[in-house]
Design a protein that fits this description.
- This protein is of the alpha/beta class.
- The protein is built from eleven helices and seven strands.
- It has helices at residues 6-18, 22-33, 36-49, 66-72, 85-97, 136-147, 164-175, 189-199, 211-224, 228-244, 254-257; strands at 56-60, 77-82, 103-106, 120-126, 148-159, 202-208, 260-266.
- Strands 3-2-1-4-5-7-6 form a seven-stranded mixed sheet, sandwiched between helices.
- The two termini are 26 Å apart.
Length: 271
């Protein structure tokens, strides 16, 4: 039985669809494109697979598919996979808003269509695997590898358990029964490296988002809100615009203390 609550996440995407704002989505995409995390990912991709034009990518648990859109604007051919029909609709709206094309698949990554196996140059997820407990936690990471061709790049981004502002916020919301994203077990950089070794990734790295920008975003949230409910709504709706006001500069602590940590590596020929 899967840890993730399909109905719960279906409700999240349904809510996002009802409040859909293409300008806000574009702001979020542009903001992330300039982020420390994104720039590190792009440098790694260019080093390992070269020009992204024509490369096939798949985003697992795509939601709004921000990273698929970023790579598609660089010429990649995106496939967007999610089990939620509303998430697929949201991804389609974002593609249309940017005038981009992509393959949209409503399916379970644990049982993907056979034509997706060993097909992609990049298999990635952002904010997905932490919603599973072991052994499914490792199984969904392995699912990325199943979709990659040899030499393809695996990207798995999760919240960092060492970024305490998020963990404190989450605990407070759970105490007040305001947390609606189901189980979320944030990773540590050490755990993520262990996962990478179990996947057999080559040239593996764990990279982080800008911890200073992340911390200042939470400071701004606290200044703008007076209750946990308002605070959480601000995180969901205005995080992108907040990030636009915060300088994104690399710091050596990012890979340890950033809000998001990313496992990135290459699938070997024997995987």
């Amino acid at each position: 039985m899967k840890t993730i609550n399909n109905q719960q996440w279906g409700d999240v995407w349904s809510k996002d669809l009802k409040s859909y704002d293409p300008d806000a989505e574009l702001d979020a995409i542009n903001s992330e494109n300039l982020s420390v995390r994104c720039q590190k990912i792009l440098r790694y991709l260019h080093k390992k697979i070269g020009d992204l034009d024509g490369k096939q990518t798949i985003e697992i648990g795509c939601g709004g598919a921000i990273y698929s859109l970023i790579l598609a604007r660089m010429g990649a051919r995106p496939t967007l996979l999610d089990y939620s029909p509303d998430a697929i609709i949201l991804a389609k709206r974002n593609l249309d808003a940017l005038g981009l094309q992509g393959e949209l698949i409503e399916a379970d990554v644990f049982n993907p269509p056979s034509d997706l196996i060993n097909r992609f140059d990049v298999a990635m997820s952002f904010g997905t695997v932490e919603h599973y407990r072991y052994p499914e936690r490792l199984d969904i990471c392995r699912a990325h590898m199943k979709l990659l061709k040899p030499g393809g790049v695996c990207i798995i981004s999760t919240p960092n358990i060492l970024f305490l502002p998020h963990e404190i916020l989450k605990a407070g919301l759970m105490m007040k029964n305001k947390w609606f994203l189901g189980y979320e077990g944030s990773f540590s950089p050490v755990e993520l490296r262990k996962v990478g070794r179990k996947l057999g990734l080559r040239d593996m790295k764990v990279i982080g988002s800008s911890w200073r920008a992340d911390f200042m975003r939470y400071v701004m949230i606290v200044r703008e809100t007076s209750t946990y409910r308002r605070l959480f709504n601000f995180v969901e709706k205005d995080a992108g615009s907040s990030n636009n006001l915060i300088s994104q500069k690399h710091h050596w602590l990012d890979d340890f203390l950033g809000h998001d940590i990313v496992l990135i590596g290459v699938k070997g020929d024997s995987n």
